[in-house]
Write a structure and sequence with these properties.
single chain; about 80 residues; alpha+beta; 4 strands; globular
Length: about 80
């Protein structure tokens, strides 16, 4: 069982790693969420959990961010 704080004051339990993985892939569990760590009895960032790292969408690369801002690649001037 995984106990997740989706947002401040909003908790949800997932009964299996498959259910949590599906919620991560579906965007239901965002990087701001926290997971309850039973061994230390504390809440930690979901981004520290291996299951989140495995199933979370990857952040865009620097090149991808540049393309998203409308950067273009141009050909060299003629004659060069």
């Amino acid at each position: 069982m995984y106990r997740i704080e989706l947002s401040l004051g909003t908790e949800q339990s997932f009964g299996s790693s498959e259910a949590l993985a599906a919620a991560i892939r579906g965007g239901e569990v965002a990087p701001q969420a926290r997971i309850y760590h039973r061994a230390t009895a504390t809440w930690i960032s979901i981004t520290l959990h291996p299951l989140y790292r495995q199933h979370a969408p990857h952040p865009p690369t620097e090149a991808g961010r540049a393309r998203g801002r409308g950067a273009t690649v141009s050909a060299p001037p003629e004659g060069q």
